[in-house]
């Protein structure tokens, strides 16, 4: 896909396509490894921790502290074998998420979004996918959850540049799931009472495969 040769493009961390969306499918292995190798893996907060159940603060400082947080998030995501991670999932009350996620066409997407907002799409772009969903903060539990199979998110990259990200299929689900986190919603909050109870039962009966923060 052609890249725009503009000053705005080169100001951002990632290039953009002709529609102004970031190109997050190039050099994925190298970019993810660079983030991760600079970071330190942190344990994952789980459902019940207060930081997961309230809207996070906007990112306003795009300096070294944020850069280190992003690196730590990629390291934590890899340890937990996740495809997306929000800052409050490692206990940090800031609106930022990272992703390393494939779409339904087999393309890998790697990137960072600060202060994300989901774009309200017209009805003709909102076909529902009722696939199964899980969450690192609800370890070992899964449940079907209908979400649009296409999503657009606006926000900023880790340097503060405005960005737009779009995704289809599984990656669309990831964008919606991680944005939800930063506004205080877990995927189980969108389930029926019965389905939520079942997800929490699954979590209680199994051991997570990665370090978590116990809720005292």
Automatic annotation (TrEMBL):
<dbReference type="Pfam" id="PF01327">
    <property type="entry name" value="Pep_deformylase"/>
</dbReference>
<dbReference type="InterPro" id="IPR023635">
    <property type="entry name" value="Peptide_deformylase"/>
</dbReference>
<keyword id="KW-0408">Iron</keyword>
<feature type="binding site">
    <location>
        <position position="181"/>
    </location>
    <ligand>
        <name>Fe cation</name>
    </ligand>
</feature>
<comment type="similarity">
    <text>Belongs to the polypeptide deformylase family.</text>
</comment>
<keyword id="KW-0378">Hydrolase</keyword>
<protein>
    <recommendedName>
        <fullName>Peptide deformylase</fullName>
        <ecNumber>3.5.1.88</ecNumber>
    </recommendedName>
</protein>
<comment type="function">
    <text>Removes the formyl group from the N-terminal Met of newly synthesized proteins. Requires at least a dipeptide for an efficient rate of reaction. N-terminal L-methionine is a prerequisite for activity but the enzyme has broad specificity at other positions.</text>
</comment>
<keyword id="KW-0479">Metal-binding</keyword>
<keyword id="KW-0648">Protein biosynthesis</keyword>
<dbReference type="InterPro" id="IPR036821">
    <property type="entry name" value="Peptide_deformylase_sf"/>
</dbReference>
<feature type="binding site">
    <location>
        <position position="177"/>
    </location>
    <ligand>
        <name>Fe cation</name>
    </ligand>
</feature>
<feature type="active site">
    <location>
        <position position="178"/>
    </location>
</feature>
<feature type="binding site">
    <location>
        <position position="135"/>
    </location>
    <ligand>
        <name>Fe cation</name>
    </ligand>
</feature>
């Amino acid at each position: 896909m052609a890249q725009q040769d503009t000053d705005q493009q080169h100001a951002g961390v990632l290039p953009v396509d002709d529609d102004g969306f970031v190109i997050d499918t190039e050099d994925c292995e190298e970019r993810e490894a660079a983030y991760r190798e600079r970071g330190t893996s942190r344990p994952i907060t789980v459902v019940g921790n207060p930081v997961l159940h309230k809207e996070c603060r906007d990112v306003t400082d795009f300096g070294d502290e944020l850069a280190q947080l992003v690196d730590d998030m990629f390291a934590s995501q890899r340890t937990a074998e996740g495809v997306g991670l929000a800052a409050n999932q490692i206990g940090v009350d800031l609106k930022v998420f990272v992703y390393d996620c494939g779409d339904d066409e087999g393309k890998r997407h790697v990137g960072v979004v600060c202060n994300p907002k989901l774009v309200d799409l017209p009805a003709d772009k909102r076909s529902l996918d009722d696939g199964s969903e899980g969450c690192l903060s609800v370890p070992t539990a899964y449940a079907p959850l209908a979400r649009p199979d296409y999503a657009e998110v606006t926000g900023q990259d880790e340097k503060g540049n405005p960005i737009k990200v779009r995704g289809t299929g599984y990656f669309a689900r990831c964008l919606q799931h991680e944005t939800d986190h930063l506004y205080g919603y877990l995927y189980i909050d969108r389930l029926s009472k019965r389905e939520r109870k079942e997800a929490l039962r699954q979590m209680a009966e199994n051991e997570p495969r990665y370090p978590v923060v116990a809720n005292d």
